[in-house]
Design brief:
Chain lengths: 225, 204
Amino acid sequence: MNGVHDLGGMHGFGPVCPEEDEPTFHEAWEGRVFAIIRAARAQGLFNVDEFRHAIERMEPAHYLATGYYEHWLASAETNLAEKGIVSRDELERQTALIRGGVDAPATGQADPELRGRILGGGGNPDVLWHAQGAPARFAVGDAVVARNLHPAGHTRLPRYVRGKRGIIHKLHGIATFLDTNAHGLGQQPRAVYSVRFAGRDLWGDSAAHGHCVFLDLWDSYLDPT
Amino acid sequence: MSHEHAGHHHPEPQPYAALRTKALESLLIEKGLLSPDIVDTIVSMYEQDIGPLRGAKVVARAWADPAYKQRLLQDGTAAIAEFGFTGNRVDVLENTPTVHNLVVCTLCSCYPWSVLGLPPNWYKMPAYRSRAVIEPRAVLREFGLVLDEHVEVRVWDSSAEVRYMVLPERPVGTEGMTEEELASLVTRDAMIGVAKAKAPAATG
């Protein structure tokens, strides 16, 4: 989707602001929402593409006004509601209870079977790479142009590269197609390439001398020139 | 942040996100989909175990062992797995006197967790994500890194499921250093591409 998350090339966001000795999580709740998402994905409650697309669907001003882990919280709430696991009403009621001082019990025995399921598999059950898929249409060195696609759903083709010419740098392999996998339409694996774009071709003559951008793009994002 | 005044402890009101997170966690526990010990374990893994010290070891070995460096550049995932670090497909990008690599994810925050742990906030925020692809040299200058005109800057936008790690140039004056000593010069920022590796401390 042509969402606010598709930030490449935008102006106006000011300086990059590194923080000295930054902690992994600034607040305890950030670590907990991170773990909630990891545990949910490890059990296959939703996949990584659904996770990302829920963030992309946040209200744009809310996306820009909130910190990173609030995006994760929004995605957890959206995905768990859409999958019928935790409804928004349930969550509102529970939040009101906790705010009112009722401390929901978070005790109970550790469940070894649940632990094994969540922690045993390396955390990521999504199949990303495949031995086979649709045949690769391009080879290293081929000149290509990124299609002028504007899907309303999830895509990994940023706006700044659409319609731009590049050169195939590398064939990475056959990958799950995230545009379909985010919408329950299956993995539909196809080739993904590293494609090199000259800075000047992306941004015009004001681009810095000697700067290029490599993007990893699926076969169906590209046309021959 | 909460402040304690002498004789009183006033707990700060919880931010709304903290309340919602607590609510979500408790509901998932009720439904048998989570337990607090699992949450604690996952948090601890990423706070303690999985971080840029991993990548520093990989870089140090590549500097010390030319055969390892070749394997690393040929198949980053397999060479990194020699250390037992797994979980992402990683391509390693070599910095040279004429080529400088910089890694970004303009669409979200994709990052080589398996060797660097979780990314710093600035990497995930709009300023870096928007500017790295259009004005990389200006971004690098903000980090204090000024590159000569003749150096080619390559920006890698992690738009699929390949993750990228930069192999920074080995600093001058590090001949004869052990891998452990070399690893101490390798910063997370150097492996993202916004900095060079540290120079060795002056001796004598």
